[in-house]
Design brief:
The complex is a heterodimer of chains A (about 220) and B (about 200). With about 220 residues, chain A is an alpha/beta fold. Chain A contains 10 helices and 5 strands; from the N terminus they run ααααβαβαβαβαβαα. In chain A, strands 1-5-4-2-3 form a 5-stranded parallel sheet. Chain A starts with a helix and ends in a 37-residue tail after the last helix. Chain B has a 5-stranded parallel sheet. A two-stranded antiparallel ribbon of chain B has the order 6-7. The chains are: A alpha/beta (about 220), B alpha/beta (about 200).
Chain lengths: ~220, ~200
């Protein structure tokens, strides 16, 4: 009895198997939904977004530029008008709206250079950074404080007060030297030729005692 | 007999195959958070700038303020009616529920922190996850005598024209260095006057 019903089922076995495979194949249709899920997971993106690792200070950058470090690429994400007005030396302009253009991708998505993004402050640079970070672009950094901090620290450094520690004076001298490198001129920088004052030798006239003519005695 | 063994083997392997697939499906965990917007769409949203609001606009019954600073800072001082969700905990289950409920209730989440930049990345992240009714309150927060002070913040405003500044500094430097022509004054000739020494009265005869 069992054998007979088993045989009946077994006669359909290939059909049943085929049916199961068709159903499973149907499941694949649902998968493309996850394909939209481009980039790294949201959890990882959040932890990247919170860590301050991406920031590079203006001093560090100034150092790199002055030492002609070839390993970085400066990218200005502001609009063209501000870019034309003033930008960092050798910076490339990629306005935020052109971030995903084909031309821009060649600059952003590579692992040869450290890409340093900057704007007037951190805001737009961070937006560009976050979008690119989701797409797993490597070696992206953000200039901390952007152009405004660049101006306040490198181009126009504030003089330290007398009661500040020695480091701030050292930092100030570095920044000042850097600002000269970037074209700022200081009045005292123009060397005033020091005229060596020739101190005239004092001639002390030794008065010779005049021999008094012998006075008439009595 | 031999044929029967063959078919049995086929069916056994097929069953095993299906079992593996079923186990894999069961083990497959649906990711908790799925992006709803791709990066290109998000970029378009960011370019509109309509997600930024300032202090005068927050008195709207549909707005729910969310403070993304940590608990300590939140307790030190926060805006009236704000809810504290610390940025690193944004994706916790409870917090994602909060955002979901806000969306269902047609409310708008208004994020704020110490400065707009701090809110920037959490905002973009949430937007990409499909929380579309979300805005940034662009304020700077500072404390004065333990009181919270809020100030509208200027985002992406250039404080100075750097080029002009450099030009200016060059001009200044050249002006101050030019007129300093040192006129070499001829040293005064000092003609020492010889004082006639009064001869001591000589003894006469």
């Amino acid at each position: 009895m069992i054998n007979r019903s088993l045989a009946k089922v077994l006669s359909f076995r290939y059909k049943i198997l085929a049916l199961i495979f068709v159903v499973l194949a149907g499941g694949l249709v649902l998968l493309p939904k996850y394909e939209k899920h481009e980039g790294i997971s949201p959890e990882k993106l959040l932890s990247n977004a919170i860590s301050p690792e991406r920031y590079i200070s203006t001093d560090e950058l100034a150092h790199k530029i002055i030492n002609q470090d070839p390993s970085y690429l400066l990218i200005d994400v502001r609009d063209e008008v501000s870019f034309d007005e003033y930008t960092l030396p050798y910076a490339i302009n990629i306005p935020l709206e052109k971030l995903f253009d084909e031309d821009s991708e060649a600059y952003l998505n590579q692992d040869e250079f450290d890409v340093i993004l900057f704007s007037n402050d951190n805001f737009q640079a961070n937006q560009a950074w976050l979008l690119c970070n989701r797409l797993e672009y490597k070696n992206l950094r953000v200039l901390d404080g952007g152009m405004n901090t660049w101006f306040n620290t490198i181009i126009n450094p504030s003089t330290p007060k007398e009661n500040m520690p020695a480091e701030s004076f050292e930092l100030y001298t570095f920044r000042k030297a850097a600002s000269m490198y970037f074209g700022v001129a200081y009045p005292e920088q123009v060397k005033v030729k020091k005229v060596k004052k020739i101190i005239p030798k004092k001639v002390i006239a030794v008065k010779k005692k005049k021999k008094l003519p012998t006075e008439g005695g009595c | 007999m031999k044929e029967l063994e063959k078919t049995r083997r086929i069916s056994i392997s097929a069953v095993l195959f299906i079992l593996v697939i079923i186990i894999a499906l069961l083990a497959y965990e649906r990711p908790k958070h799925i992006y709803a917007e791709n990066t290109a769409n998000t970029l378009n949203k960011l370019l509109t700038k309509d997600y930024l609001i300032n202090l005068s606009e927050i008195n709207n019954p549909d707005f729910v303020l969310i403070d993304i600073r940590n608990q300590y800072e939140f307790e030190k001082g926060h805006l009236d009616g704000a809810v504290n969700i610390y940025a690193p905990e944004l994706l916790n289950e409870n917090n994602s529920k909060v955002f979901k409920e806000l969306g269902e209730g047609n409310k708008t989440a208004v994020l704020y922190g110490n400065n707009p930049n701090e809110v920037n990345t959490p905002f973009i992240l949430l937007y990409q996850l499909g929380v579309t009714n979300i805005k940034i309150l662009s304020i700077d927060i500072s404390y004065s005598q333990n009181k919270l002070i809020t100030k509208n913040s200027n985002i992406e405003q250039s404080i100075v024209n750097v080029n002009a500044f450099i030009e200016e500094s060059r001009k200044k430097a050249s002006i101050t260095s030019k007129p300093k022509k040192e006129v070499i004054k001829p040293p005064k000739k000092i003609i020492p006057k010889k004082k006639k020494k009064k001869m001591p009265a000589e003894g006469g005869c």
